[in-house]
Design brief:
By secondary structure, the protein is mainly β. The chain is 11% helix and 31% strand. 23% of the residues are buried.
Length: 93
């Protein structure tokens, strides 16, 4: 969303969290070391943004998140197999 943009810059993967495959966030959430510029916390967490799947694939590529990067469930599973904590990531405008 415009009021909760994805931070731009160099970050890393902090952790991978498995979720119920049919859940809103898809089968895995890949938490980054980057923090939201507008949220101090989200869903009980500390305001870090993440990459995750979705139960609403029609929202992929739209400005519908709280700063997270939404992927198809198949894509986030593939990404999850390729990264581990410490893997560097760059978010560009």
């Amino acid at each position: 969303k415009a009021e909760t943009p994805t931070p731009i810059g160099h970050f890393a993967i902090a952790e991978k969290v498995l979720t119920p495959p049919s859940g809103f966030l898809g089968p895995v959430v890949i938490v980054t070391t980057g923090f939201s510029e507008t949220l101090n916390e989200y869903a009980g967490g500390n305001g870090r943004f993440a990459m995750h799947g979705t139960s609403l694939p029609q929202l992929i590529g739209t400005r519908a998140s709280h700063g997270c990067i939404r992927h198809s469930n198949a894509s986030i599973l593939r990404i999850s197999r390729l990264v581990s904590p410490g893997t560097p990531i760059t978010i560009r405008p």
